[in-house]
Amino acid sequence: MKTKYIAIAVLGFAAVSCGSKLAAVRKDALKPTIITQTLPHDTDDPSIWINPNDASKSIIVGTDKDTDGGLYAFDLEGEIIKKSIPLQRPNNVDIAYGLVLNGKKVDVAVTTERETNSIRIFSLPDLEPIDNGGIPVFEGEELRAPMGIALYTRASDHKIFAVVGRKEGPSGSYLWQYELTDAGNGKAGAKVIRKFGNYSGKKEIEAIAVDNELGTILYCDEQFGIRKYVADPAAKNDNELALFGQKDFKADNEGIAIYKKSATEGYILVSNQQANTFMVYPREGANGNPNEYPLLAEIPTSTIECDGADVTSVNLGGQFQNGLFVAMSNGMTFHYYNWDSIQQLIDAAKK
């Protein structure tokens, strides 16, 4: 059964169990609509798959980060409905639609597998591996352990590219971009086509997000800021477009989610990890400048030390008619939020 959220007011805070300790959550923190079933090890990053035939049957795919971890699929009630084959420390995950394999379109979830220096590709919604056992990444490099991943689908030809980050790496080529390919017999492969990405050296780069419609990549250079690049490798533009949020975070800036109100407008939500809040920026930029990102709001949530998040504006029915925001929380769970409750706080902050 799904976990029920129970708030216990204690001196202005709510006490939430996280393993062997209690973590303080602000009393005004937004309460989740649903908390998922608990995973065995350590949740890290979620991604939302929209069912094209019935959006109310969409699923959340999340990582359980451990040597004996895996990908888990949850329904919109937070129930576990499928586990992948065992994976060796899967870190982040992202989803794309319509990878062409053997003449057929396949929706895919792609995750990093840190202990094998690989990415893994799974078909959706059945969560079955289609990668011949894994695809090596950062080959020839001393620093290889993959962490972050985001998928870009190019509008002109619908090719899908994976942007992969690692635990450590050099500035200028910290991120590698791979084109997902048809490896034959219904299996997927990948080939590296780009190396880019500035890095401050302060901590690491894990959280990566792609905006398909705007053709951009956003990633968190932790404890330094949020960086923006062109997503299309064919543009041959490795120049940094923007650097923002440098003074907005208590410590780590982490998971990134992009809420799309239209093809070009919406919000960028970034985890203020140690503050247990999300910082909100305008997706379209500000003052006519698509690379200017003022802080719009800070949303306190019930999540503890959130690493990863995702969001959709699609009507999923039931409690999520204007979309769903999902975020990882310590305590081995993911929290689902009705988008309306987040929008109300953003609107209030604008007044």
Structural commentary:
- Residues 1-23 form the signal peptide.
- It holds the Pfam family Phytase.
- By secondary structure, this protein is mostly beta strands.
- It has one helix at residues 339-350, and strands at 9-10, 13-18, 21-26, 34-35, 43-49, 59-64, 70-74, 80-83, 90-101, 104-113, 118-124, 128-129, 135-136, 146-153, 160-166, 175-184, 187-196, 205-211, 216-221, 225-230, 242-244, 253-260, 266-272, 277-282, 297-300, 309-312, 324-329, 333-338.
- Helix content is 3%, strand content 48%.
- Strands 9, 10, 11, 12 and 13 form a 5-stranded antiparallel β-sheet that branches.
- Strand 6 (59-64) and strand 7 form a beta hairpin.
- The longest helix is centred in the last third of the chain and has 12 residues, at 339-350.
- It starts with 8 loop residues before the first strand and ends with a helix.
- The model is unreliable at 1-23 (pLDDT under 50).
What is the structure about, briefly put?
It comes from Flavobacterium plantiphilum. The protein has 351 residues and is mostly beta strands.
